[in-house]
Every structure is written in structure tokens, then in C-alpha cells.
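Q: Focus on the chain.
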Amino acid sequence: MVSGLEYFVFSLVDVAERKAYPICVRQTVRSEAEKAAIKERKKKRAKKPKTKPKGRRKGSLNKDKNELNLSPELLRINELLSILGKLTRVFVRINYVVLDGHFGHHQAVLMAIQNDLHLISKLRKDAALYEKYEGEYGGRGPKNKYGNRLKYDLLPLKYLKKSEQIGETITNYYQGVFLHKDFGREINAVIIVKINLKTKKSGHAILFSSSVELGWEKLMDYYSLRFQIEFNFRDAKQYFGLEDFMNTTEKGVENAANLSFLMVNVSAQLLKNRDEKCVGVLDLKTHYRGVKYAVEAIKILLEKPETILMKEAIEEVKERISQLGSIHQRKVANSTT
């Protein structure tokens, strides 16, 4: 028994319109081996000691941080991303792929770079970011790479880009190019710190991109636009049957989901081309339903113009039009003249 369905959707986001258009939908079906690996990983996390032993584990070797070693989940996403790139590169140039904090790690960065893209995502709140070492070389051993570790409650003022106060809350925006020991490259990070002046409590979030040239305002803006995809899911569920289809096979389920998201795009385009009379999907559905009813009524009138005023004919017209759109339609007997 399947208790629920999971889909992974890639959408193109129009930055100017601030609207997302779903173009690639795939049902997530995990293999038994992948499920077992997830359970094992959760067990290891639960047994993980709070204090990590110092030093390097005996027998451990250096690892190439830029070696691509994708998990089954990333392999599925990489396949979709590759298909998407081939479909869209003729029409539009895509520079960034935005993923949520679940993919805030270096393998996701490598996957994006493999597809000629830069990743925008979110790091954990306790991510260990380091400044680049700017001191002098001591003359012996390897050159220092990592400088001071960032303390999020006391960030250097040189990284402060903007500070604003709304009511009793101060929001500070910091941006810089930092290092992370799990990443094999520099990352462009934007740290958002909020401080409540009344309670003196503070919190922070860390957004990052593999593009070190991306400005902090655009980085934040592009990440926030990821939420537009949630509206695609809302419309697909509310208006186009994503929650109501009765398919049971894997291919049937995938086709039904793709059809729902296709209608999201079709309705968006129709709304864009129509006048102010249709301001939402409900208005659009009402309009075309009314057009359908009018067309069917005209067909009946043309079939029996001489009997349309008769009581039996009027009842037949009402009965036939009232069944439009119903699942179980009854046969309507023709009225006699």
C-alpha cells in the first residue's frame, strides 16, 4: 500500500514576472536498497556521539573533494537536469539552479557544475565557514588555506552590506566569499542575522551560491523565488486534479501528474492573454464552462427549432445541459413532436 506520492518538479522561473512554470515532473520511486541506506544513515546519526574525538582517524586517506559521487537521489535529479538542459538551451539560457537546504552540500554543487549551472541553496545554521587566510607564509610546510572561523553572533563588520530595523527587529545582511572544509571550492555566502531588541534573542540563515560573482541581493532574490513553485503545486491540486486522479499504475500516475502541471502552464498563458474579466483560474474555468454550455444549447436549438417552445423540448434542453461535466451521464430520451 502506498500512503502517499512524491514528485520532483523542475520549474523555469521568470525573474521579471516573478512566476514559475513547471516543465519537468518525475515521480520519486525509491528502490529497496536506497530505503535501506536511508534507514542505516538515520541509525548512524542517532548513535553519533555528541563530542567528536580530536585528530584524524587512523588509516584515513585524503579524498578528492571535487570527485563526483552522486547519491541515488542526486542521480535522479541529475538525469532530469540533463534532459531539461537539452530541451531549453535552444530557447533560453539558464544560469542557476535553485534547490532547498536539503541539497546544501558539495555534491549538489558538483552536479550543477556538471550541467554548466551554478547552484543556489541554503546551508545548515551550524555550518563551519572560514575566512580565507591572508597572513604571511611561515616558510615551512603547506601554505595555510583557512583563516578564522566565522562566529555568527559576532560577524566582522567588513562583510556587512545592509542593516535595517522594522519595529523591534533589526536585520543585518552580510556577504562574503568563504571556505568550507567539505567543499572543494570557494562559496559565495549571504548571512542574514535578525536581532530582537526587546528580548535580545537572535537567529540567522545562510544562503550560498557556487558563483562567487553573484551579488548578495540577487542571491537572496533568486532563492526567495523558489517559493513560486509552491503555487504551481497549489494550483495543480486545487484546480486540475493532482489530488483526485484514480490511476494506479506507475506510468498512469506520472501521466496524470504531468497533465495537471501542464494545465497550470496552459491556464497561466490563457490568463496572460485575456482581459481583466478573468483574474484567476476559477474565472477562467467558469468562462470556458459557460462557453461550452452555450455551444451545446445552440446545437440543441438548431436540431429542433420548431419544437423548442414545447414543454417537453424545454425539459430536454435543461436535462442535457445540466449533465455537462458530470461523470455518470444518463441517456436523455428525445422529445416527441
